[in-house]
């Protein structure tokens, strides 16, 4: 499908609710059961963690540690690899190169319109990391890469422009992750989940929740899933995308309560030569979009969550997603 160059598709950000610093977040612990589909409930609040990152002991980031404010590449990369819990407040525009290691027990939160350009963050074999309220643009590899059995990661309220590869890639046995309230503004390969068709070690891992994200003129991978089961994709707003969700290589994906507008293929079973996975769809809202492909069944979702009506998702997500 033809599309204008992504760099010309920048849109002014809507007004958004205030975001609390992650060091003071009230972390929601895992619950049992779920709110029935179609129930009337408010969107999860900006300070409330929902989804797979509440499991496996929960995700607190740098809570309990000190706080440092950084405004240069050197200060940021030094803080990212300090031992122990730490809240890192990012100020101004910081130009990075390549992928930069992030250690465990870190909260990285933008203040005053912070922007990361040029490079990205690499969470490699780490745990308990929160990334919030940052704008990423012009990254030379990935903006955020989560890999090598990293667990309990929360990527929340960020804005992603365009870059060389993925905006948020999650792979190589990583697990217990929530990706929420992000604005993807024109990216191409947006969110990969699962390294490759041959990396069967991902089976039994890659449990990720994607909710209240705004896929805004972004092309593909929202997400593209291999092996993960169950992967939960709910209350996202898809606008003008080549495709939304793809379930491949035996994955199990629950797609519910999303709003698809001008999306050529909202959901696919199998993609680009990969074997099919399972995909269950319910209570989605389609405007000017193709059909949702479904197949098989998906394992139960173990945590509690509130589901917004799909028809209200566009207004909710465009009013709240992205960095402040």
UniProtKB/TrEMBL annotation:
<dbReference type="Pfam" id="PF00544">
    <property type="entry name" value="Pectate_lyase_4"/>
</dbReference>
<feature type="domain" description="Pectate lyase">
    <location>
        <begin position="63"/>
        <end position="266"/>
    </location>
</feature>
<feature type="signal peptide">
    <location>
        <begin position="1"/>
        <end position="30"/>
    </location>
</feature>
<dbReference type="InterPro" id="IPR002022">
    <property type="entry name" value="Pec_lyase"/>
</dbReference>
<dbReference type="InterPro" id="IPR012334">
    <property type="entry name" value="Pectin_lyas_fold"/>
</dbReference>
<comment type="similarity">
    <text>Belongs to the polysaccharide lyase 1 family.</text>
</comment>
<keyword id="KW-0624">Polysaccharide degradation</keyword>
<dbReference type="InterPro" id="IPR006626">
    <property type="entry name" value="PbH1"/>
</dbReference>
<dbReference type="InterPro" id="IPR045032">
    <property type="entry name" value="PEL"/>
</dbReference>
<keyword id="KW-0456">Lyase</keyword>
<keyword id="KW-0964">Secreted</keyword>
<dbReference type="InterPro" id="IPR011050">
    <property type="entry name" value="Pectin_lyase_fold/virulence"/>
</dbReference>
<keyword id="KW-0119">Carbohydrate metabolism</keyword>
<keyword id="KW-0732">Signal</keyword>
<protein>
    <submittedName>
        <fullName>Right-handed parallel beta-helix repeat-containing protein</fullName>
    </submittedName>
</protein>
């Amino acid at each position: 499908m033809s599309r204008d160059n992504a760099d010309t598709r920048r849109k002014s950000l809507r007004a958004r609710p205030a975001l609390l610093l992650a060091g003071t977040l009230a972390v929601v612990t895992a619950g049992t059961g779920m709110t029935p589909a179609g129930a009337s409930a408010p969107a999860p609040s900006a300070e409330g963690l929902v989804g797979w990152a509440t499991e496996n002991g929960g995700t607190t980031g740098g809570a309990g540690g000190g706080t440092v404010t950084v405004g240069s590449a050197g200060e940021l990369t030094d803080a990212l690899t300090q031992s122990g819990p730490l809240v890192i407040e990012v100020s101004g525009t910081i130009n990075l190169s390549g992928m930069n290691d992030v250690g465990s027990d870190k909260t990285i939160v933008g203040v005053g319109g912070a922007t990361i350009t040029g490079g990205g963050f690499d969470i490699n074999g780490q745990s308990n990391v929160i990334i919030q309220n940052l704008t990423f643009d012009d990254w030379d590899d990935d903006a955020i890469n989560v890999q090598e059995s990293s667990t309990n990661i929360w990527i929340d309220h960020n804005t992603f422009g365009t870059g060389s590869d993925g905006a948020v890639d999650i792979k190589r046995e990583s697990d217990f992750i929530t990706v929420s309230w992000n604005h993807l503004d024109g990216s191409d390969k947006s969110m990969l989940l699962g390294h490759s068709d041959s990396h069967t070690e991902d089976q039994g891992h890659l449990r990720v929740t994607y909710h209240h994200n705004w896929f805004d003129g972004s092309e593909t991978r929202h997400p593209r899933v291999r092996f993960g089961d169950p992967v939960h994709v709910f209350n996202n707003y898809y606008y003008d995308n080549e495709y939304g969700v793809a379930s491949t290589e035996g994955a199990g994906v629950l797609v519910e309560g999303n709003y698809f507008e001008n999306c050529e293929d909202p959901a696919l079973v199998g993609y680009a030569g990969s074997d099919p996975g399972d995909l269950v769809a319910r209570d989605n809202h389609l405007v000017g979009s193709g059909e949702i492909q479904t197949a098989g069944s998906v394992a139960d979702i173990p945590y509690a969550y509130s589901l917004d009506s799909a028809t209200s998702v566009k207004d909710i997500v465009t009013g709240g997603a992205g960095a402040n």
